[in-house]
Design brief:
alpha/beta, 5 helices, globular, 183 residues, 5-stranded mixed sheet, single chain, Beta-carbonic Anhydrase, Chain A, binds zinc ion
Length: 183
């Protein structure tokens, strides 16, 4: 079943006796756990920061921001957009787990720039129902970061909105570029 809303079926790995990707990752976890020592942290992020970022595979948040285990909450989705579910996580992050700073990170070359809300209509044509969620596609990444900052700053559930900054990560240089919320 192939539509413009899904990848071709032949892009999936073949089952040819090789371990599946999940089996490979579970194997890697055994090695990780063998060397793991419990740092004895509690659940509150050390730096009291929550990072909202795109799920893009080229963005290694911990490496790109010099973060260590336990430093921050990372909330990721397609686009790094501030949806109701992002607000749910940020509300819990601030009210139950003590974070005070919000950093928003979108990036160059995001998959959402090549989509439109037609994606939802294509899904409807294929499966007979339209998803309740918006695709949150965008054309101007700077403007989308501004909109995300605005959604955080105007949300009534979040008590800490003074320290909210937004950036675009360049997937070719690794550099963050800050977005001025007012321009
Ligand atoms: Zn992206």
């Amino acid at each position: 079943m192939t539509t413009s809303a899904s990848l071709p079926a032949d892009s999936a790995p073949e089952a040819s006796g090789d371990p599946s990707v999940t089996d490979r990752l579970v194997g890697a976890n055994r090695q990780y756990a063998a060397q793991f020592t419990d740092p004895g942290m509690d659940a509150r992020p050390v730096l009291r920061v929550a990072v909202v970022a795109c799920m893009d595979a080229r963005l290694d948040l911990h490496a790109a921001l010099g973060l260590e285990l336990g430093d921050c909450h990372t909330i990721r989705n397609a686009g790094g957009v501030v949806t109701d579910d992002t607000i749910r996580s940020l509300t819990i992050s601030q009210r139950a787990l003590g974070t005070r700073t919000v950093i928003l990170i979108h990036h160059t070359g995001c998959g959402l720039e090549s989509l439109t809300e037609d994606f939802r209509h294509e899904l409807e044509d294929e499966v007979g129902q339209r998803p309740a969620w918006a695709v949150e596609a965008f054309r101007d990444v700077d403007q989308d970061v501004r909109q995300s900052m605005q959604r955080v700053r105007t949300n009534p559930f979040l008590p800490h909105k003074d320290d909210v900054r937004g950036f675009v990560f360049d997937v070719h240089t690794g550099l963050l570029r800050e977005i001025d919320p007012s321009s």
